[in-house]
Automatic annotation (TrEMBL):
GO CC terms of this entry: axon; plasma membrane
One Pfam match: I-set
SMART domains per the UniProt record, alphabetical: IG (SM00409), IGc2 (SM00408)
Protein name: CNTN1 protein
Keyword Membrane on entry: yes
Principal subcellular localization: membrane
Gene Ontology MF terms: cell-cell adhesion mediator activity
Disulfide bond listed as a keyword: yes
Length: 190
């Protein structure tokens, strides 16, 4: 294949590499630069969200994505308590923290710690629980004669601190009410 594989790279391996392909009809060259990157973890470009919302009884995945080379090891805390993998909590290899079956007790300050052989850093966000959104009146099946009109209702309860948007789709495709206003009409009841 003409591959060059390198393992356990060091700073001495950095530089310009050249591949030469040759046959009876001629010779061709291609160049590529190999840069070796090493840096302590930093959250300057991608800090953790300061406010994270999670629905009661639902799940949340809090991302922790510092810039670091080599890849850091991750740990998490809630307040002063160090978190470990359990039945409801999981720390993923990419640094994300997942919590399932959210309750009021899960609210609080979460800190992600990232550490590699170059240094360490952390970032903190606050998890707040919201009431889960629920469909309280689902659309019903309707039989309509060709040419007649049909009305379908959908009513939902939701956390009053959040906005609610209804999205309608037909056979898996979202209905664009602006483009299809001659065929569909959206009535919003407050």
């Amino acid at each position: 294949k003409g591959e060059l594989r390198m393992q356990s790279l060091s700073f001495d391996d950095a530089g310009m590499y050249q591949c030469i392909a040759e046959n009876a009809h001629g010779i061709i060259y291609a160049n590529a630069e190999l840069k070796i990157v090493a840096s302590p973890p930093t959250f300057e470009l991608n800090p953790m969200k300061k406010k994270i919302l999670a629905a009661k009884g639902g799940r949340v995945k809090i991302e922790c994505k510092p810039k670091a080379a080599p890849k850091p090891k991750f740990s998490w805390s809630k307040g002063t308590e160090l978190l470990v993998n359990g039945s409801r909590i999981r720390i993923w290899d990419d640094g994300s923290l997942e919590i399932i079956n959210i309750t009021k007790l899960d609210e609080g300050r979460y800190t992600c710690f990232a550490e590699n052989n170059r240094g360490k850093a952390n970032s903190t966000g606050v998890l707040e629980m919201t009431e889960a959104t629920r469909i309280t009146l689902a659309p019903l099946n309707v039989d309509v004669t060709v040419g007649e009109n049909a009305t379908m209702q959908c009513i939902a309860s939701h956390d009053p601190t959040l906005d609610l948007t209804f999205i309608w789709s037909l056979n898996g495709f979202v209905i664009d009410f602006e483009k299809e206003h001659e065929h569909y009409e959206r009535n919003v009841m407050v």
